[in-house]
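Hi W.,

Here's what went into the run:
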Amino acid sequence: MAAKTSTPSASSPSPKAGRGNRSATVWIGRLVVFIVIIGLWELLSGTAFNSFWLSKPSLIVKRIIDMTANGDLWFHMSITLQESIVGLIIGMLGGTLLGILLAFSGIFQKWVYPYIMALYSLPRVSLAPLFIVWFGIGMTSKILMVVAMVIFVAFYNAYEGVRNIDKDLMDMMSTFKAKWTHKLRWVVLPSITVWILTSLRLNIGMALIGSVIAELVGSNRGLGYYITYSSNMLDTTGIFTGLVLIMIIAVVLEQIIVQVERRLLKYR
Amino acid sequence: MENNSHPKLEIRDLRVEYDSKGQRTVALENVQLKVEDGEFVSVVGPSGCGKSTLLKVVSGLLKPAGGHAFLDDQEIQGVPSQVGMVFQNDALLPWKSVIDNVRLPLEIKGFAKDKQLEEANRLLKMVGLDGFGSYHPKELSGGMRKRVALARTFAYDPEIYLMDEPFGPLDAQTRVKIGEEFLQLWENVGKSVLFITHDIEEAIALSDRVIVMTSRPGRIKAEFKVNLQRPRPFYEIRFDPEFKELQKEIWAQMSDGE
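Here's what came out:
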């Protein structure tokens, strides 16, 4: 009897508290997974297998500290960041603009769409050597590579976004005799904001892939270069350090986008 | 309304065709229609009879395959400046606040910002939404959203209102309430209205004339003049014997030959 009456009161805390609990569980769970994996790596490296091949978390942390002290860290990271961000901006702007224009271009979109998709199916990584032949091993070839990686996702999202605009809203604007500038500002851009943010999120990873690959193929600076350099020295700790730094950049940039998203999509 | 020399809206021999998947479907055929200045005309008919298509032609969003549509004796080409549309699903901008939604037509017309806000606030008060300016459409009930949509069209101040089942998705009570408020507002404004609905009672209670359409292809089947007093009590008028008689006749026309 007592158990029966206690059940409903136990399950009655407000839904908000329940959600808070669940998110705490999620974070604790994540932390546990992190500690287990890093801990196993640390323990097994040097005992179960040779730490020469897989390095060790403590060695990587030490390397990051050393690199910060002698300035190498910021030198390589800033180069890769610059290439990625400049390329990301150019690619996002260009792709999005292209997507909007093409979606409104009537029959023209049917002419060019298959060719854009054909280009998209090309493994763009294979363009890196071409860009290096054209622009040398400097920044330009890297930025171009990032643009090539980023532009298609941006294009496709903007294009699909425009095609998914609520037709009633466009009709409504037309019946108020709105010019295209008003339609763009009040309907088109707000409608495709979700799509643009999605492509921005996907493209952060793409941009890093682009810059690092281009650096691997030919450069004298950047995290990609640091990885190849370490590889030539058979320095696995260096390779892993480069990978960890790339991962950190990706996570930080993604978090920035999440915050931007929250602000822009508050109305939902 | 004896003089039919200069109607606000005139439609002659209208024919509209749709091209869907290579199939030509006739949506409207041989439609004749006149709306006088200041007249409230309702079109009733089963769903899919092309009622909404009729509004799209008048608002210039759709080109007819044959026949003519005139506003103030001018053939309709592109979106005419005299029409204001109220859409079935409100067509509010979800990313804009209520006040921004209402001032949109004024922004398009190029009014100064403070003038826009002043007018939008006046209209919000008029439709009973004083104090809701900073809300977003998602935060409002269906009836409130409808009021915002009405306020927006009032802001545009058209010469003829085109209303596509504007109270359709509302529940019965809200529907009567909004209908009543709209009737009062309209009786003060006195502009022409072409009102689409499938609700016979709503049509009679609001209109000066009710037009019955058949489906596939949409044709005008019958026309009824509503001689009930104005201003009209939107709900109580339904108990008037003349109202009942009209309702019976219109229902007979609609159900016959379906």
